[in-house]
Amino acid sequence: MFGHSGELQIISVEQGGKMPAEERTGMRAGVPRRSSHSSIRSRRRRKKRRRILRSTVVVFAAILLVVCYQTNWFMQMPAFGRRTQVKQLQRKIQASAEEDEYPLELAELLEQNEETYDFVKNYTQKEAYIGKSIDLSNDYESGSVPLLMQWDKRWGYDLYGDAMIGLAGCGPTCMAMAYLYYTGDLSMNPRVMAEYAQEEGYHTPEGTSWEFWTTGAQNLGLSGQEVSLSENSMKAVLDSGGLLVCSMSPGDFTTGGHYILLHGYDNDGFFVNDPNRKSNSDKQWTFDKLSVQIKNLWGIYGS
Description:
Shape: elongated
Radius of gyration: 37 Å
Distance between the termini: 120 Å
Oligomer: single chain
Structural class: alpha+beta
CATH class of the largest domain: Alpha Beta
CATH architecture of the largest domain: Alpha-Beta Complex
CATH superfamily of the largest domain: Cysteine proteinases
Strand order of the largest sheet: 5-10-6-7-8-9
Strand content: 5-15%
Order of helices and strands: HHHHHEEHHHEEHEHEEEHEHE
Number of helices: 12
């Protein structure tokens, strides 16, 4: 090659056309290369910074988990929290079986219906509710059929026969809803209705007898009569201002026996008040879906 002076300059080239190692290592895009010691120190600093960053993230995550645990933050998440709470309470009930702190029936109730969590959890404080005054003013609205739960803490721990209303009181709870709708008498809550059913002989070892919906209704100042299981018959009762009580076989509403209350219908199906599950009461049910589960039904009317 010719330099600026016009003299021929010879550049030594290694075999294979490569520049000598000294020249290659001394140049990087026209910039002298850092010393090897400087490059090693730089890599060490970068590794150190990465280690510090990872350690910081781990420590922050650990602190966050501790805070969440102490404040029950996870438990407040609707899906994750409630399911976790249910499992923890079920384990607690199983562990306390020998101490009789919780009846095992409550574990079964909770397994079948997570809506009962608060009722089951507060069983150990049941004395704060049993026999105490009950105010239904916030549950009743004139012209509407109130939705009452048999496992409401206000009456669910009281006995109906040898079981709690929360476990076996679907019949008295349905009748209490009908009675409130027709009379507006706020003194007739499910506890009082259960006492009435038991004192008048409508409670049996199997639960609430079918006579409760006829003679039992009549003695309350209402009227009740058996209805044939057909869509037209059911709608006729509702069209005439009546309510329907259905005795249900195992299916969507129960694993044993159960009573529900029907209070209206439209093109999408029947409106149901299920005293055991609010979620069943939040949707409508077609005749085809209900009819295969109904054992018997009665029309209940006001005086």
